[in-house]
Amino acid sequence: MQDGASGITRLLSRFRVVLALCVLLVGLILATLSNGRDGFWWAVLNELALFAAAAVAVPFYYDLFLRDAERHRFLTEMTEVLDARLSPSADGERGLTVHAGGRPSPAEKARFIAGAQREIIEVGVALRSLASLYVSRPEQDFTAPVRRLLAQGVHITYIVADPATAVFTAYAESVGDPGMPGRAAESARQLLRVAQDFAAEGHPGRMAVYLTRQLPTSYVSLVDPDSETGICRVSPYLPGVRRADMPVLDIARSAQPELFERYVTYARRTLAESVVLDPVQPDAV
Fold this sequence. Notes:
Elements: H1 2-34, H2 40-85, E1 96-99, H3 106-113, E2 119-124, H4 128-135, H5 143-151, E3 155-161, H6 166-174, H7 180-200, E4 207-212, E5 218-223, E6 231-236, E7 248-252, H8 257-272, E8 275-276
Parallel strand pairs: 2-3, 3-4
Antiparallel strand pairs: 1-7, 2-5, 4-8, 5-6, 6-7
């Protein structure tokens, strides 16, 4: 059906071209014959012939030569505009990197935060995998890189969902994991002990653990949120999907400032509504 309609369109287009050429030639012939002849009707015929030739020639030659050139220029300019809107950042990326396979490796996690200059904020329901990097992995994998950041004056803030809230309990039951609040409490205590050990070393940078009564719907890690070189890592919590398998998205502020700022606003507001975990009574969690 579409092939038939396309054939008819091509046929009509060719017919219009032939008709235009015929009118143009007839007009030119009549204009030539009537040119220089005396008499009113010869003058009228000459004017009509010239008008017919010009009326056909102008749109015909525009369609034949100029339309394609203007179309090409329009497409070129549109491509340039789109390229400018999606201009790559200095590292050759477009400011968005997707880890579709799930949670990156501990080594990659260490590389992600290695460039921090001022601040790191991480928000999650339990931050269990983060706590395990300190507790279960060799020190050189993650603890040592974090120690270097603290020694450089970088402040690190971890925000965990308060396991005592009703919304957390309801969420854990809704996903069939009633033990989740208990594991979140243990993660918070582990992170607090890590923070206390680092504090005892006397680093200029500090590490703090907060509890939020909100329920984070995704894991968020912000590196230098107030800097033009800031980066953000986001992983949504998808029911029915293992946390380790959930997709991860990295966002560069330099290339995606609006998107980046939304997560900064979320993290700042969550932090403002959170309470710091009491180092004197960590078992109260």
